[in-house]
Amino acid sequence: MQFSSLVGELLGYFAGLCSAFVFLPQTIKTIKEQNVSGLSLSSYIIYCVGMLSWILYGIYLESIQMIIFNLISLIFAAIVLYIIIKER
Asked: Average pLDDT for consecutive 10-residue bins of the chain (88 residues)?
C-alpha cells in the first residue's frame, strides 16, 4: 500500500470514528436525564432514516467502514429517538 493510500485510509477511519461517536455524549445525557424537551423528534427521525440509507449504500458498495460507522451512529441516534418518543 502506498503512503498516500494509507493516509487516505487512516483519514477515512478517523472521520468515521468522529461521525459515529458524535451522538455518544447526547445519548448518555439523554439516558441519564430522560429530558428530551429541547430535542427535535423530526430531526432524529430524518437522521435515523439517513443513517439507515448510508448503511444500505455501504452494503451495496461492500464498504465495511461505511456500514460499521453508520451503524454505530444509527444505534446512538435511535436510542435518543426511542427516548424522545417514550417521553412524549
From this structure: 83 92 95 95 97 96 93 97 94
Of the candidates 44, 13, 49, 45, the one whose C-alpha atom is nearest the C-alpha of residue 26 is 44
pLDDT of residue 1: 67
Report the pLDDT value the prediction gives residue 9, as an integer from 0 to 100.
86
Q: What are 14's three cell numbers?
A: 478517523
CA distances to 6, 7, 38, 87 from 41, rounded to whole Å, are 39, 38, 10, 11
* DSSP structure string for the chain: --HHHHHHHHHHHHHHHHHHHTTHHHHHHHHHH---TTS-HHHHHHHHHHHHHHHHHHHHHT-HHHHHHHHHHHHHHHHHHHHHHHH-
